[in-house]
Amino acid sequence: MSAAAGGGTPPARLASAHLPVRVRGVLERALTLVSVELDHGMQRLLVEFERELFRLADMSRNPGSESGYMQALRNFQLSRADLMPRFMVQVENELAGVRGQAWPQEPVAIDPEMPSFRNLSLVETSVMDEDTVLREIAGRHESRGILALHLLGQRFGVLAGSPAFDAVRLPLGPHAMCRAIRAAAMGLELAHDARLLLYRMFDRQVMAGYENVLDRLNQLMADEGILPALVFVPVRTRPAPVDQVPRGDDRTPSGAATPARQAAPGRAPAPGDAQRLFTGWPGEAANSEDGLDDDEAFAMLQQLLSGRRELINKLRPGRGGGAGRQLDTPDLLDALRGLQHAAPARRGDLPAIKRTILAQARQQHGETSALSPRDSDTFELVSLLYEQIANEIRGDAPGSDLVRELQLPLLRLALLDRAFFLRANHPARQLLNTVAESAARWNDEDDLDAATLAPLRQAVKEVVERFEDDPAVFADANAGLQRQMQLQARKAQTLERRHIEAARGREKLEAARRRAAEVLEETIGDRRVPHFSRALLSQAWADVLTLTLLRQGEDSDDWRQQLNATREIVATCAGDAAPGGEALAEHVKSSLGQVGYHDDEAAVIAQRLAAVADEDDDPASRTELAMKLKTRVRLGDDRVKAEKPDLPPRTPAEQARYEQLRVLPFGCWMEFTTNQQGDVVRRRLSWYSRITDNALFVNQRGQRVAELSLDQLARMMASGQARLVTAGRGRLVDRAWQATISALRSFAGRGDPGPAMGTGT
Fold this sequence. Notes:
Number of domains: 3
Strand order of the largest sheet: 6-5-4-3-7
Strand content: under 5%
C-alpha cells in the first residue's frame, strides 16, 4: 500500500514541492486538466459501481456472497465521496515528485531485469490478483496511446531535467493512473473482490477517454512552450500493389512514426491504427466512434462501385444496357423476407439471390426488371464483403454455416441502414465479426470452446427468426452475445493468469539458480578445489543454495547460515582449513535432504564435502556417485532447453526484431505461419522474461500452447514466419472490409491505399 492509502509519509503536494515556478505552474495546469477531464468518468464510476454491487447482491444465490456484497455496498456508500479526492491526491503526489520521486513499493509495471530475492517468498493471492488486473489495464492503455505517451514522456523529461520518461514512470501515464486508483481504493475499506470490480469499472468508465486526455495534455504543454514543435514525422511509403493487402505485420520498428494515410470523408486521421498492437480477445466489440458523415462517405462508395461497373461493362459489351422497370426498395425487402422464410436451408450466395429476386420480378410484372442503383450498390457491397470474409474463414469450421445464415438478414439491414458499411461499432458488424472469428483461419480446431458455439447459434437464430426491418433486433442479439463473449474472455484471462504466475515462478527459480552459481564462483575464486568436490558443489550444494533463496530470500538468517556453511565447505575442500567434522557433515546432510536427496546419498556427499578426501581415494564409489548425480534431475533443470544447439549470431534484421520484442506490451497477438501454403495460427504473447528470454503464448481460450525464446521469435519474425497483429488488422470483418475497399479502388483506377471507411478497433 502506498503512503496515500496508509498511515505513513503523507503524500507530496505541488504547493510544497521544490520545483521551479514555471515547472510548478505547468504541472498545476496539467493537474487541473486531468481533474476536469476525468471528473465525469469518475462520477459515472461511482454510480455504476454502486449499481453493480447492488445487482450482484440481488442475483447472488449464496447468502454469504450476498452479505459480502451488501457489506461492500454499505462501506462504499459511506466513503464514496472520498474516492475522487484520494485519487487526485495520489495523482498530485506523482506530479510533485517529478524531480526525484521515490516510487511506490507496489508499481504496476513489468518486472525489472533482476528481481530482489527478498521478495521471493510466497505472496498473498489477493495481492497477486490486484497486481495482475492493474498491470493488464495499464498495459492495454499503454499500447493504445503509445504515440501520445511517447510525446508526453519527452515533455516531462524537459520538466524534470532528465531523460524522457517511459510509460511506467510517467506521472500521468496509465501506470500512474492505476497506482492512483489502487491507493484510493485501499482507503475505502473494500474487500478484495470489490476492489477488483472497482478496477475493472474504472477501466471501462474512466479510462475509456484516456487517449483524449493524453492528446489534451500534449496540446497544453505545447501551448506552454514545452517542446512546441515536437511531432512524429510520418514515414512515407509507396502505395502497395492491389493484390498485396497490408498484412499488419508491423514492419516499421517499434516506436517509429505511423505512415501517412488519406482520411475518409468526415473522419480525422487515426495515426495510431497502423502501429498500435492488437490486444483484445476474440469476439471483443469495437470501441471506436468513427464520426463519419454517412451521406458523403456512402457517396464515395458509390463512386468506387460506379468505376467498377464501368470497367465490367467495358469487359462485357452489351451487358450494361438499361433495364425496364426498377424494383422499389420496399418490394425488394418483401421479396427478400419471403425468400428468407420460404427456404431457410439452401439459398445460395448473394449473386444467386439477386438473380432469383429479378426472376421473380419478371414473372410478376412480365417485363425486364432491375434494382435501383442504390439497392444494386448495396447488393454489390455485401457480396464483395462476404467474398473477402470467405477468404478469411475455414469452410469446415462450425461457425462458417452461421456466417452464411446471416447473409440475408444482413443484406436486408444494409438496405435500410447504410451505417452498417461505415461504422465499425455497428451492432450488426460486431455480431458478424464475432461469428466470423469463430471460424477464422487463424484458429486451430481446439481454439474454439464448445461452450461458445451455443450462444453463437442462439444469436444467429434470434436474428434470422426475429428480424423484420427493425435494427434493434441486431443490437439485442449482439448485446446478449457480447455478454457471453465477455464471460469467455474472463475465463480465458483467469487461465492465462495462472500460466503467467507459473512462468514467473520458473523465472524466479532460474534467477535463484544463477545467483547460487555466482555465490559459489565468488566463494571458490582461485582456490584449488578437487574436481570431484567442485562437481558436488556446483550440482548438489548449488540446489541447496537455490532452494534457500526461493524460500527465505537473500536477507534471511537461513541464507547467511548457508553462506557460512559454503565458505567452510570450500575452505575444507581446498585444504585451507581443518575438516569440518560431524557438525558440518550433519548440516550438509540435512540440507541435501530438503532438496530431495535420499539419506544414503546425502550422507556420502556430506562426508566428502565436510572432510578432506583424497581425489584418487575409492574411485569406484566416486564413479558410482558421479553417475547418480549425472542422471539426477536438478532443481529447475530443463534438459530440453539445455540440449538445443547453439545458433549463429543474429543478423542486423534479427537483432532489430529482438530489441523490438523486449519492449512489447504483454497481451499482444502474433500470427505464425504453419505450412508452405501460408496458413497461419494466432497466438497471444501473454508474458515474457528479460532474465530467461522465454516467452509464454496462449490461445484464445487462455490455454498454454507454446513457450519460445525471444531469440527464436526474432529469427522467425525476420524470416516472415511470425508477425505482430496490429489494431487495424485485429478484427476479421474490418480486415475483410479493408480488402473490399482496396478491390474497389483498383477497379476505379485509384492506387492510393487510403483508410477503409468504417474500420476501427
